[in-house]
User: What shape does this take?
Amino acid sequence: MSDADVTEDPGRHAGPRVVAVGGGHGLAATLRAVRGYAGTITAVVSVADDGGSTGRLRAAGDRPAPGDLRKCLVALAGGDSPLLRAMEHRFDAGELDGHAFGNLLIAALEDSEGDLVAALDEAGRLLETVGRVLPTTTSPVQLRAVVGSGAEVRGQVAVARQPDLDLVTVDPPDPPACPAALDAISAADQVVLGPGSLYTSVLAATAVPGIAEGLADTSAQLVYVCNLRPQASETAGYGVAEHLAALERHGIRPSVVVYDPQTIGEPERPVDVELCPAPLCGPGEGAHRPDLLGPVLAGLAGAADWRAP
Assistant: This one.
């Protein structure tokens, strides 16, 4: 399936070209927000996860992680269908206990098509997605982290439990970046990083060297959406300034940072970046609301308006 074959939201052809980079539930929330104003949408997704159903599939065969790819396909699906509902179905008995059907579908399509990008494009066709979902790399990779003491931690699940994180990389250290992902980043009007786990979703995606280089070279507006609150272990004690410092240690320099001052507070020290404070969730809520994040991102992109998908 080519870019021209990707379904677009009606009336959004004139909107900006938006690329969202990261992983997990946070990237899915961004994609739902972006659907309200973008002309074209591309998700560039980390494939370093090694937990749950994804981890079992990776252990059974050397493949990139499908779990976050599945979440993004669901976020961009066009309308409702039995297949869409089945994508998030988890089996609860037998050898398939704990497996998400969508993970199995992506793995099966990858095997039958012989290529992960072709598999995701075919899954997108079946789900009538309003954008394209691409991996950061089609090679299997493992996340590695160095902590403040200099010790090394391996595996995304282990990294997420580790405090005092300093740098994350992937092993092997030089996997080829997905060419279509690099093309999308190069052609984008706006690139959105996050929200999501800083080290194990956002920086796990940019740990593929070609992706980081593409972000450094793009002329697109680079927006970082900060988490609502510090995350146990991984970003304990982090505010906006600490998030920015971590990004800069990895060579990522956003042009705008979006954050909710009611949850994460104001930066405790001066930062050399445009700040965009805005309410991003309702009282007591623990996740970004697409209907609040979407208009903020649309305004930064210069889009005329935002409408609920």
Residues 3-49+138-301 form a domain with the Rossmann fold fold (CATH 3.40.50.10680).
